[in-house]
Amino acid sequence: MAMSGPPSSRRGGRRAPMADINVTPLVDVMLVLLIIFMVTAPLLVTGVPVNLPDSKAKGLDQDQKPTVVSLDRDGGLFVNDAQVTMADLPSRLAEIRSANAGMEPPQIFLRADTALDYGRVMDVMGELNAAGLNKVALVSTSVADTPAGAGAASTRSDAQP
Question: I need a labelling partner for 148 at 20 to 30 A (CA). Which of 8, 21, 31, 119 fits?
Answer without folding.
Answer: 119
